[in-house]
Amino acid sequence: MSVRIKSTGVSRAGDSHSIVEHTARAAKQSLQRAGIRSDQVGLLINAGIFRDSNIMEPAVSALIQKAAGIGLEYAKDDPRTFSFDLMNGAISVLNAVQVATSVLETGSAEHVLIVSGDTHPSMTRYIADDEFPYATSGAALLLERTDEPVGFGTVHSVKGEGTPAVEGYLDTTTMGNQGRGVITVVREPGFEDRLLEVAVDAARRALAESDHASLGEIALIASTPAPEFPAKLATALGIDQRSVHTPDLRYGDPHTAALTAAYDLAVADDKLADYRQVLFVAAGAGPAAAAVLYRLPVLVGAPA
């Protein structure tokens, strides 16, 4: 048994700066593309970090679930949808894949929906800048179990030494009465090199379990703490630059939505047809990184 991607969805920019709204739209899109009902989603995991108005309670996953209309049936014997937030910086989505795999292996859920994305807590902007380097966008990754020889392998995680390299926090000593709309993001000097170091380590661990005959069989999708980060990672791994696929970076780094958005775009553009596997690599605060190989279905472009 393995776990494969059933469909994806992406929402960005437009008429809203709410991450609840964007991830809910992405969730609805993924269900529509997959042709399944909302009551077939047994678990929703929100892997986003920066949220509307810095809200902490209730869990943002519950707000997204409500906005997407998933699991809102309350009559006796109606199907239930459990949801929770999983926050581990830019690698949250791959951690969520680990959790989803464990849940789907038990057979207790038919589908698991992983949503991700970030916004500035002021909800007044969607374009990244030096102060807040993340673009507003939401993404959804719908997973299901399969007995076919496709899907995710083992997620490999690496934690670096020393300071976090990247961190985001609410500075309670200076926020005054503006705490709902401010956030501090710090990127230490040399942060990109430190993220690259752990990303290479995690990626090599994932590649070590692969049966590939050539790196030409593998497409690379990586997080985007800097626009050139995936290309630098490819160079370090010996992967051809033409095999690197990135999300839409016009507005900045999609952060937790980057992996799903890049996969969604690559499938939409039919860019994965020549590959047998996708190497997903995420790196962020910690510094920490995670990597996993995804064996592609024959008809990768059909549902997503």
In words, what does this structure look like?
It is a single chain. By secondary structure, this protein is an alpha/beta fold. The protein has 6 helices and 12 strands. β11 and β12 form a beta hairpin. α1 packs across α2 and α4 packs across α5. It is globular and about 60 Å long. The two termini are 21 Å apart. The relative contact order is 0.19.
List the helices and strands and how they pair.
Layout: E1 2-12, H1 19-34, E2 41-46, H2 60-68, E3 82-85, H3 92-106, E4 111-118, E5 137-146, E6 151-152, E7 156-159, E8 166-169, E9 184-187, H4 191-208, E10 218-222, H5 229-237, H6 258-268, E11 277-284, E12 288-295
Helix pairs in contact: 1-2, 4-5
Key phrases:
about 300 residues, alpha/beta, five-stranded mixed β-sheet, 12 strands, about 25% helix, about 25% strand
